[in-house]
Amino acid sequence: MVGRKIVFHDSFAVGWSFAVGEWSTPALDLRESRRAIDGVEVRTKKVGPNLAFHAGSVFWDHSMGYLAEYWRDALPHINTGLCVIDARPAGPLATGTGNASFFLGSVTAEIFRIKPDRTGVVKTGYLECTQLEFVNILKRGLA
User: Fold this and answer.
1) For the chain, what is the HEC assignment?
2) What is the pTM of this model?
3) Which of 78, 79, 134, 80 lies closest to 106 in space, CA to CA?
4) Tens digit of pLDDT for each residue in 42-99?
5) Mean pLDDT calculated for residue range 115-125
């Protein structure tokens, strides 16, 4: 996923399983570029290696999880949510020998699923992974 381009439309990443908003730019270490597609300028962003999701970040599988004025209005649209409860950023480590190594970072998140009657969500588990694995989950979804 590192080095891959992300296109945002209406402030959300296009083609991702979770609604990842442009406000996630720092966590994704995104670097912006512009290119023309069929004569229309499109902003794209590339994922960098220094991923840094942090505790408190919440991701829903539908943008209504963020956009609905009332939670009850979001519930018909969402199925799954992730809430980061602990994280360590990815990045270079100083080894003291002049050779740099790279720490992949870590993310621990709670998994939430919609209740069958769609009146709320319930915590169904946890996931522990590297920062890059977390990006892949946001892109491709939970297995």
Assistant:
1) CCCCEEEEECCEECCCCCCCEHHHCCCCCCEEEEEEECCEEEEEEECCCCCCCCCCCEEECCCHHHHCCCHHHHCCCCCEEEEEEEEECCEEEECCCCCEEEECCEEEEEEEEECCCCCCEEEEEEEEECHHHHHHHHHHCCC
2) 0.86
3) 134
4) 777 888 899 999 999 999 999 999 999 999 999 999 999 999 999 999 998 876 666 6
5) 96
